[in-house]
Structure formats: C-alpha cells, structure tokens
Design goal:
By secondary structure, the protein is an all-alpha fold. It is about 75% helix and about 0% strand. The chain has two domains: about 400 residues, Growth Hormone, Chain: A, CATH 1.20.1250; about 55 residues.
C-alpha cells in the first residue's frame, strides 16, 4: 500500500517519532531513583517496590509483537496515537496514586501502551524513508534516543525527584503525550489503513507468543525474590518454553500468521536480532550495577550518581549517531562484530571496580569505551534487522527487533544482577560489595564477547547487505555486482 507524504513535511517525522521513543525508554529508567521516595510515601514493602519497574518491563516486553502486528492490522498512525493517549492517561493515574497496587497497575498500563506505540513508531519511520543512507541515518538517531534514554533516566529522575517529588517523574509524560497526539495527524504519513485482513488475524498466535514472552520475563524479573531454583521460577520457565513451542506450531499452520516464520530465513534479520538480544542483555544490567557502585560504594547522592552517568550517556549518543556511517563504510558484519567486541572490553574494564577506585579510572574510562561500542552495535543491528522491510511487514520487523532488545534487557538484568548478588552475598562492606559488582560486569563482558563471536561465525553467509559498499564481486560472466551491493549496503 502506497503511503502518502505527511502534510507537515517529512522532516518532522523523525523528530516526532524519535522523541516519543526517547520518552518510552526513559520512562523505564526514570523511576529507579524515585523509588525510595515512592516506598516511603505509599508504604511499599521491599519486594513490592521492585514491581514499580517490573510491571512496566513485563507488559512492554510481553506485548511488543502483538503491538507491532496490530499496527499492521488497523493502521500504524492510528495505533500510535491511541497508544500515546493511553500512555499519558496511565502516567497521570500513576502520579495520582495513593497506594502501592494503584501505582503498580498504572505502571503496567504504561508498559502496555508503550508496547503498541514503539513498534508502530519504528514502522512509520521505515515506511516514510527510502531504504539507503537516509533511512540508515534516521535509524542512527532512533538508536541514539533509545540508548541514551535509558542512560539519562537516572539523572532526570534524580533531578525531578529532588526538586519536585516522585510524582513529577510521571506527571511529565502527560503534556508530552498530549503534544505528540495532537501533532501526529499533521506530521505522520496518511493513507495507512492497515495491510492485514482483520478477518484472518492470528488470534491463537497472538495469545501464545504474548503469554510465552510474558511468562519468561516474569520468571526472570521475579527470580531474585522467588529464587532461581524455586518451583515458581522453574514452572514459569517451563510454561514459557511450552507456549513458545506451541506458538511455532500455530504459526506453521496459520493462514495469516502473526509472525511468518519465513522471516527468520533472512539470515541477516536473524543474526541482527540475536546481536540485539545479547547487546541489551549486556548493557541493561550495567546501568543498574553502576548505580549501586556510585551510591553504595563511592557514597554518591542520587543526583551525583545521575551525573556520573553522563560519560556513558554521551558515549552512547556518539556511538549510535555514527553507527550508520560505520555500516555504510565497513558493512554491518564488520561494524557489529567490532562494536560488540569493544563493548566487551569496556565491560571487562568495569570488572575491576574496587572500594578505593577513582571516578576517572573506574567510571569515566570504561564508560566511554563501553558506550561507544554499544551505541554503534545498537544502530548497526537496527539497520541490519530492518533492511528490506516492506509496507506489509514493517510493523512485524519493528516489533521483533524491539522485543529482542526488551527481552534481552530483562534477561540480562535478572541473571547478571543475580551473579553479582551471589558473589557479594549478604556482605555490606564496600570491598566485598564492589567485588560482587565487578563479577556482574565480567559476566556482562562475556555476553558481549559471545555476540562478537556469533556475528563473525554466522554472518558471512548472510545477504550482500552485510558487506561493505566497496566490495565488488565478479560473477561468472565477468560483470560486477557493485550496483546491487551499493543499493543494499547497510541494510
């Protein structure tokens, strides 16, 4: 289906969609610093307080694939606007919360709305720009706002909480949501009325994949409280595996599958999503572990800890904005392998955290190296995963990519933080505590190293898009495929 140009001009599409994505990612991190104030005012128990963050992550990650496909079904602009309005309403409800369950329910509503907004926003970006350098640059900006949104969440949350109180971190979403919803009809492409026959929508596939991902994320995020070897965790993981297996069976038989399994025959798409999983699996817990180091070991205040994230935030921004240039010059395979290997080195450097460490050696140095690598990898994997997407499957590819990132982040946060906790045990002295945090960083470094190895191992037989534009191969007749390589480079 052809998409008519937006009335306000295409130059406003990227700023609107990227700023919305920034708010969604920021919101997953902004409440972390405000949580002690929430616990004090609303009477949260220690275990209950974690669900202020977990409820958002659970619903966001669990419903992403369904959200992306619903955009394909009823129209992405419509899904985007409705989702933004629900997100703003849930934020207002959370800011007005008077008891713990009220706030947790509001956070769940935010996560559910975000699961419909985020893939629709990325799909609208893909269909608004022609494949090639212009789209790659836009994806670099998209990756930048996503990467930095999580990194600056602590700074923004600490500032708002200290000056205006914890409710301000939720109130701030309301005017932003209303502004985005009012601008969207004037800026976003028209003519998007859905590309999937509503009478053939894959209900069984939607139910099994949503329940499977949700059960898996719930098992991981609650494992620290329930225990990794507890009956609850084991049963949830078994249920998640069974539901995902059932989903594969359903998709093979469905006439109009929610996720056509043939999309994974695209080697570039599959490898790029694998890198997205591992990259976020390594990076998400880094923010949490670094927060603990700055506050519990070095004694920083919440606002000072937020400022301590600035080197990592700026490095992520530089990396994501320059990732598309690296892909255009070196190809996705070389760029991704080098980027995640750089991330692994930076995280290994973090592994030497100590109670007597300095900010320059233990924080700023590894932050710059880690941020640059992760930022480039973020953009490169986005370009490789969404390259070649059509009007019909843009929402699907967007949903799978964002779901990969969210699931990877949730698994990494649960598993790597558990490693750090098991090493430090119940000790509170700074030296032992820092040693445990360092062990968590070393584990994250190992995950990033695996991503680099898998990229080099699996990517060579992928599409021509994974090679540098300068690669020119002669065919049997003596002619070259340079034009084809240039046309698809970076995708």
């Amino acid at each position: 289906m052809a998409t008519a140009p937006p009335s306000a001009g295409p130059r406003w599409v990227l700023p609107l969609l990227a700023s919305t994505q920034f708010v969604l990612i920021l919101d997953a991190a902004i409440v972390i610093v405000a949580m002690p104030s929430m616990a004090r005012d609303l009477g949260f128990t220690p275990s209950g307080l974690s669900w202020v963050a977990n409820a958002y992550v659970l619903l966001f990650g669990g419903f992403l694939l369904l959200g992306g496909r619903v955009g394909d079904l009823i129209g992405r602009r419509r899904t985007f606007i409705l989702g933004v309005l629900v997100f703003a309403a849930a934020s207002l409800a959370g800011a007005l919360a008077q008891e713990p369950l009220w706030l947790v329910a509001a956070r769940a509503g935010q996560g559910l709305a975000a699961a419909f907004v985020s893939p629709s926003a990325l799909a609208l970006l893909l269909v608004s720009l022609a494949e090639g350098p212009e789209r790659n640059r836009a994806l670099g900006v998209w990756g930048a706002v996503g990467a930095t949104g999580g990194a600056v969440g602590g700074l923004v949350g600490g500032t708002l909480t200290e000056w205006l109180g914890w409710a301000s971190v939720l109130y701030v979403n309301v005017p932003i949501g209303l502004a985005v919803a009012s601008l969207a009809p004037r800026v976003l492409p028209t003519g998007d009325r859905g590309t999937v026959d509503s009478g053939k929508f894959d209900v069984a596939g939607a139910m099994t994949i949503t329940a499977g991902i949700g059960a898996g994320i719930y098992a991981v995020v609650d494992a620290d409280d329930a225990g990794w070897g507890s009956m609850q965790t084991l049963c949830l993981l078994a249920a998640a595996a069974s539901l995902l297996a059932m989903f594969v069976i359903v998709e093979k038989r469905a006439k109009n599958p929610l996720v056509p399994l043939g999309v994974f025959a695209d080697r570039g798409f599959t490898v790029a999503n694998g890198v997205a999983v591992l990259n976020t699996m390594a990076m998400f817990p880094t923010f949490f572990l670094l927060t603990l180091y700055l506050q519990a070991v070095l004694g920083f205040t919440p606002l000072q800890a937020g400022l301590g994230f600035l080197p990592l935030s700026l490095a992520l921004l530089v990396g994501t904005l320059n990732g598309s240039r690296a892909v255009q010059r070196f190809g996705a395979r070389t760029t991704m392998a080098t980027a995640v290997a750089t991330t692994a080195v930076g995280l290994a450097w973090f592994g030497f955290l100590s109670a007597g460490g300095s900010v320059l050696a233990d924080v700023i140095g590894p932050s710059i190296l880690t941020g640059l690598g992760a930022g480039v990898a973020w953009t490169a994997s986005s370009i490789a995963a969404t390259g070649g997407s059509s009007e019909r499957d843009a929402g699907l590819r967007s949903g799978v990519l964002i779901a990969s990132q969210q699931v990877g982040g949730a698994i990494g946060l649960g598993a790597i933080v558990a490693v750090a906790a098991s090493v430090s045990g119940a000790a509170t002295e700074p030296a032992t505590y820092a040693y445990g945090l360092g062990a968590g960083m070393w584990t994250a470094a190992a995950v990033a190293a695996v991503a680099a190895a898998l990229t080099l191992w699996l990517a060579p037989s992928a599409t021509a898009a994974w090679h540098a534009p300068s690669d020119v191969h002669e065919n049997e007749g003596g002619s070259t495929t340079a034009s084809r390589t240039r046309r698809t480079s970076g995708s």
